[in-house]
Amino acid sequence: MTDQAAAIQGDDSLSEADRLGLYRVLLSRRDVRGQFLPDPIPDEVLARILVAAHHAPSVGFMQPWSFILVRSPEVRERIKNAFAKANDEAARMFEGEAQSTYRSLKLEGILESPINICVTCDRDRAGPVVLGRTHIPTMDLYSTVCAVENLWLAARAEGLGLGWVSIISEPALKEILGLPDHVVPVAYLCLGRVSHFFAQPELETKGWRKRLPLADLVSLDRWEGPRDEDLGKALTEAQDKAERGEIV
Amino acid sequence: MTDQAAAIQGDDSLSEADRLGLYRVLLSRRDVRGQFLPDPIPDEVLARILVAAHHAPSVGFMQPWSFILVRSPEVRERIKNAFAKANDEAARMFEGEAQSTYRSLKLEGILESPINICVTCDRDRAGPVVLGRTHIPTMDLYSTVCAVENLWLAARAEGLGLGWVSIISEPALKEILGLPDHVVPVAYLCLGRVSHFFAQPELETKGWRKRLPLADLVSLDRWEGPRDEDLGKALTEAQDKAERGEIV
Q: What SUPFAM superfamilies does the database record attribute to this sequence (chains A, B) (predicted)?
């Protein structure tokens, strides 16, 4: 038997239940900030979620990610202070009513969640020349983001909430976590059980921005190219269904 | 009823079947290059996959993505030529046996797949100041990558293969697709039915790189910080299960 033949799965089909499960998880995933419960996460659950992240696609099979699990209250206190400083700077970038709304939003759950995870990208993990990163040098960062999204979806499937804290200075984050120069902190995440999940994104509910009509974002063959009318109808219908929680 | 109360779903729990479905899709997702069939993709299926992408997390609910569906044989021929040029440059960056192996790999399915999709990021979509992008300016690119990963997983759940073509010059891609300066082509994807999915990543089977032991990539509280022995065991066990196709 050749290597290639050995690598072909006997049955590679997924069931209708698997298909529905994927969509249900995708559509009910939320960026959680304010609903965390302090309950610890069992090791087996955390392990499954991290395996999901580790099975993300990566350029040249580079697997550039590492996972720093931040449990220490002292470390989290320092992260929280770095967030608070950045968040105050950020608020002042908005004017008038937007600034008041911004200041009213809860944008992280660093101390309330039982665990934080920093997902990093080691740019040197596979040497200087990486298959698939030769022309788009950010591909390893993009691979790491795929791991974050896998982790997020697996967390939701396990009934756990996750929030991505992006309002923080990268140099501060690197200093607090002791990252060497060649390691980028791609995502700082808060993970934990939650009292409930919202049906819609909070920024949508609070009027910050609306969900865009998907059909407007799809064109053929070039930027702002022609539209396919039948596909446009299918897109609008599928989006409406998804927003009613009915997709499939 | 307050807005917030209205936004809470009556039942936000997912079933065990949903949880298993998510893991099955995640673990059987592959980067497909050589197994595409030419069959067209029905509009309803394509619409569901794009809805999955559109429900990705995005910084400040910015939804910076657009989707250019490339069907035109002429446009795809130009993309294929841009790939071939970059791929030849890339091959010459590897030495000795690695170069021969590199040249033997099939790294794209641009012409064989029924449709290509360029997923772009419009950096101006929500104005110059974006909630959550104030301190990490790449957050909108990262949001777009989350949309790519959602799209990829939904494709797999629908039985479709997807491959990410990253060996291409970004300026060439921008020129061929007519992207304005403020729009980044984050991912160029090939999508379609496939003859089969491989059980393992091709680069692993062909000996390019091995899958890393997950337990080595997880530490506590700081870069190369302490390890939790019990969690380490759980990680190794979960990874072994996943590689045997048994996760859950």
A: FMN-dependent nitroreductase-like
> In the numeric block, which tokens belong to residue B22?
């998510």
The encoded tokens of residue B83 equal: 């790939």
Nearest chain B alpha carbon to A59: B166
Answer whether 0.90 is exceeded by the pTM. yes
Question: Which residues fall within 8 angstroms of residue A96, CB to CB, at 6 or more apart?
Answer: none
CATH code for the domain defined by B30-207: 3.40.109.10
Closest-CA distance of chain B to residue A38, Å: 18
H-only helix segments in A29-72: 43-54
Residue A20 has pLDDT above 90, yes or no: yes
Q: Which of residues 117-156 of A touch B (CB under 8 A)?
A: 120, 126, 129, 131-136, 138-139, 141-142, 145-146, 148-150, 152-154, 156
Q: Would you say A161 and A30 are in contact if contact means Cβ atoms under 8 Å apart? A: yes
Q: Order of strands across the sheet with A183-193? A: A160-164, A183-193, A115-122, A65-70, B218-220
Burial B80-116 (b: 16+ CB within 10 A, else e): bebbeebbeebbeebeeeeeebbeeeebbbbeebbbb
What ipTM was estimated for this complex? 0.95
Residues of chain B with pLDDT under 70: 1-11, 248
- Residues, chain A: 248
Contact A196 B8 (CB under 8 A): yes
CA distance A177 to chain B (A): 4
Nearest-5° Cα angle at B5, B2 to B9: 150
- Nearest chain A Cα distance for residue B76, angstroms: 9
What is the domain partition of chain B in residue ranges?
Answer: 30-207, 211-248
